């Protein structure tokens, strides 16, 4: 990865899963908008408050896209690991704008807002990825 990005943020809305046609056939992509906020302690009140941050569009591909779309919802606190990509687009007025998007290698749910976790039985995909230690 050339432009490594690692950040914690909150989903602005639930991820949207799409199936697209590419050169090598169909593939899945989940897109989401994430707010990566900055926090600091207010010197007068001693309370933690948001003091800045930025929005990014985040995409993740393949089976991870389906998992993200299935399990994450608006407001989820996530850790995003990926690569920043920038390109030129146009806004509603037709002006050229620079857009920065994160193509994620992984999107992990943070446990700060979780009340309960229920584990599923291992799937065929999961058991194939486990190393053989024998």
Task: Characterise this structure.
The protein is built from 2 helices and 6 strands, in the order E-E-E-E-H-E-E-H. By secondary structure, the chain is mainly beta. The protein has a 5-stranded mixed beta barrel with strand order 1-3-4-6-5. Strand 5 and strand 6 form a beta hairpin. The longest helix is centred in the middle third of the chain and has 9 residues. The radius of gyration is 18 Å and the shape is flat. The mean pLDDT is 89.
N-to-C order of helices and strands: EEEEHEEH
The number of E-state strands comes to: 6
Uncertain ranges: none
Shape: flat
Q: In percent, how much strand structure appears in the residues? A: over 45%
Radius of gyration (Å): 18 Å
- In helices, the fraction of residues equals 10-25%
Summarize the topology.
Blueprint (H helix, E strand, L loop, with lengths): L3 E8 L4 E7 L2 E17 L6 E14 L1 H9 L5 E14 L5 E14 L14 H6 L5
Parallel strand pairs: 4-6
Antiparallel strand pairs: 1-3, 1-5, 2-3, 3-4, 5-6
Short description:
By secondary structure, the protein is mainly β.
